[in-house]
């Protein structure tokens, strides 16, 4: 299988820069001039700079529910717990109350990551010491066992959005080290790398067009164009990117795969992936367009080293579907130029 495993680390840095504008802060400027031997070094360097930035800004706090036995009544008395624990013997009751605390999931993830990195032999000694030196700032934060499921529970809001970049990088680095240190097969590790880079690729594509073009950029959900209004149990159509200008709309779906085209048997002719085509065709057919609006779809694949790469334009029932690829191994200037050219191909045509 041809994989996207040879993306230059410098390009991954640029993708991160677009996907997370936090990386444009002055504290990170020197990272762009450094050379890293592997992606783990890049992630670790980002965390060694970014976590102290979070600490200087003050660790986020939120109200958490606290349960304890006390001879002072505060919050609510838990009658059942009081009886079960027989606390009245000692003239105490079980109480439940809210406390404004640093002991929240986001801080727990960062603390657990620091502990993990401080002990990992995959990180150089100097970096391990720097991570260990940050732990005293998290003394009020509970210890949790680091697990990929922790990130699924994270929710962001206006108060804690500054954590998103660092917490995501914590996950990227943990995944890299976890699979390096385990006995999991090389194929499984490559699939995990692919999933991580796929998420970053989608974020990058969206942020690039948001920052570098004058298009109206969004990533809305598309509602099914049902006849009777009944849409229960229909899958959500969540777009990666929608570009709009004047009376033209381009719906883009970013794809990061091991293989961009498929053959039914070894040596057979490479074909478009049917599920991807069905998906983008559903998007453009269910888009509620204005009478004067032209709507098209684009499948934007990250290029692999396979001989056959998507580079096609289909006209199906009066709708255009572009199927193209983007070479992430080229110089980043070329990446920028290719992205603009792919979009302009639709928006500049008569």
From TrEMBL:
Record keywords? Endonuclease, Hydrolase, Nuclease
Coiled coil ranges: none
Under InterPro entries, the record lists: McrC, McrC_bac
Among the GO molecular function terms of this UniProt record, one is: endonuclease activity
Q: What is this protein called?
A: Restriction endonuclease
Pfam families per the record? McrBC (PF10117)
